[in-house]
Amino acid sequence: MESLRTDAADYHLVSRSVPIPTPSFRAVLRAADAPRTVWSAPGEAAVVGSGAAATLTADGADRFDAIREAAEALFASGDVHAGTEAARPRLFGGFAFHADSADGPPWEDFPGARFVFPRVQVTWTGGTPDAADAAADSDRGAWLTVNAVGPDVDAADVEARLDAERERVESLSDDSERGPPGVTDRRRTTAREDWRAGVETAVERIRSGDLRKVVLAQALEVDLDDDLSLPDVLSRLGEAYPDCYRFLVEPEPSADRPQTSFFGATPERLVSVRGRTVETDALAGTTGRGETPAEDEWLAQELARDEKNVHEHELVAETVEDQLAPFAASVSAGPRRIKRLATVQHLWTPITATLASDEHVLSLAEALHPTPAVGGLPPEAALETIRETEPFDRGWYAAPVGWIDAAGYGTFAVALRSAVAREDTATLFAGVGIVADSDPDREWDEVQLKYRPILDELEADGA
Ligand SMILES: C=C(O[C@@H]1C=C(C(=O)O)C=C[C@H]1O)C(=O)O
């Protein structure tokens, strides 16, 4: 495994891919070695990575630039036979929310930025076969890729490894599914009284005029009855949340601690760049799901008419458009609509821009993060309020996770509806946008609703 720095010279990258019969997502992930990678996004190929042929890490305020430079150095050295665009070399990873991320538990093994070039990768070109909305059968295909990076890697060795891996993947069988482990204990970072006090202080700041919106989050630490089986959890999240961005990020296994895993199924895209086309989402404003289609519709209409939620949403949409403007020849926002997920409904405005010149996806991710959907406005005052109020480190929660390629294209999601798992414990994160007329108890309930996607995968039969 090579760890590249920005000054890395004389590295050589070799990547070889072959088409394979479509394997089961769960079986491939079960057989993968740490650090494991999962990426699956609506309309994109799904990926499971096993191990790391190279790892790029960076810290601090210039971590976006540092990763871009290291990625350019890595990709510049490529000897690539990908066979299909979806299997071309890509780096998967993400960033910490704050530039000066702390390293307290559960984030000890997560630097300010970390990207992995998987050692072995399976790519499902039409999404994974167990995602409910995966593409039609005819669009589905799977590829196996073996990568190597180093001063003297040999293409023949990589090809031999590809043959061996192919035999291994083709012999995988999709063994039985493990259900949710069950929750035996839970600890909140934020008691109800502290939450009320935090929201009230934020509301006062907003009313006094030095803040317009701030997103405050909580964390929930749970003990499980058994170790968490991420292949099962991520497979079920794919079925329940086909419109979401599913991810799994793992740091290197550390000698001092058991493996830590950060995973989730988030509805929010931060940005995607292909050529000069940029796509992003303003997603803010939340309500629950109804028991019946009529109740669902009623809740959606009430959300769309609710002044507080519409205000909270519009601040995000306007800011995202403003943040894109310096890069763009044109920006257009679609009509506001509802994104309906299994557990919640959100106000959603899709936004598209055409770039004025070629830009790396990381430049856009840096410009947009954190949007007021997870930070606030103005950004500095919001970040200060978050630091003063939240009694825990956000780590990678609500920060960009995704991929980049050699052309500087990529997709990043905002790491929401997520948790960090380590053996039989997990820490879940969820937040809400606070504006002038926020009610602490209603915001509390909304946080609990946003734990549901992950909590449903941990609790045995709702227990
Ligand atoms: C902060 C979260 O979600 C964000 C906040 C929302 C809101 O306040 O309505 C809605 C979607 C997300 O942009 C979260 O899920 O933790």
From TrEMBL:
InterPro entries: ADC_synthase, Chorismate_C, IsoChor_synthase. The keyword Cell inner membrane does not apply. It catalyses: chorismate = isochorismate. Residues 165-192 are annotated as: Disordered. Pfam families: Chorismate_bind. The keyword Ribonucleoprotein does not apply. Residues 192-450 form the Chorismate-utilising enzyme C-terminal domain. One of its GO terms (molecular function) is isochorismate synthase activity. Its EC number is 5.4.4.2. Keywords: Isomerase. Gene3D superfamilies: Anthranilate synthase. Belongs to the isochorismate synthase family. This is isochorismate synthase. It comes from Halobellus rubicundus.
